[in-house]
Amino acid sequence: MKAICPGSFDPVTFGHLDIVTRVASMFDEVIVAVGHNMSKNGLFLPAERVEMITECTADLPNVTATTFSGLLVDFCRDQGIGVIAKGLRFGADFDYELQMAQMNGHLTGVETIFLPTSPQWSFVSSSLVREVATLSGDVSALVPDTVAARVRAKLAERAG
Ligand code: PNS
Fold it and tell me: Is the shortest distance between the CB of 88 and ligand 1 below 6 Å?
């Protein structure tokens, strides 16, 4: 059975990778899908996010990464994906994710499963990684080395 781990992944963090690894142990095939969150401004291009995810999941043979546009449920239907898998860090995640899970279920009947984030990653988010790195803080314990290097390079490029 195929599952999808959708998100913005801007950039992918150890928190995301923890969830993807655990989902990959439960399903035959896992697609990590970079989508557009209309309420977020991006640092990385979608294709760059996919590259980073692909590099960081190279040791998981049943995991692939791609972008999608439009509704997640339409992508799931087109790809024969029956389960959306999401990580939950704390109560606010649940409030946000429950509404999306119910909307997605309403639209096509696709199921969503929630996994509790491993406690060591509960405070990690891509937006905080971007903020800390932008202000010259150390994010090396929060994202893989290759991702940290790309974040530094992207911020340097933006600074001109
Ligand atoms: O990591 P994020 O930002 O929480 O990911 C959110 C994402 C991209 C998975 C979500 O915004 C999404 O599914 N967008 C695609 C458009 C869509 O299907 N919207 C309706 C959601 S009920």
Answer: no
The tens digit of pLDDT for each residue in 86-117 reads 999 999 999 999 999 999 999 999 999 999 99
Collapsed DSSP state (helix, strand, coil) of residue 106: helix
Top-confidence residue, 40 or 53: 53
Is residue 40 part of the annotated active site? The answer reads: yes
Half-sphere exposure for 40 (CA within 13 Å, toward CB): 19
CB of 149 within 8 A of CB of 44? no
Whether 76 and 110 have beta carbons less than 8 Å apart is answered as yes
Identify the H or E element spanning 41.
Answer: none
Contact criterion met (CB below 8 Å) for 4 and 23: no
Residues 6+ apart with CB under 8 A from 147: 11, 12, 13, 52, 56
Average pLDDT across the chain, whole number = 96
Look at residue 86 in the predicted model and tell me its pLDDT: 98
Q: Report if pTM > 0.90.
A: yes
Residue from 16, 49, 130, 150 carrying the catalytic annotation? 16
- What the block records as the tokens of 26 is 């439960």
CA of 103 to the centre of ligand 1 (A): 11
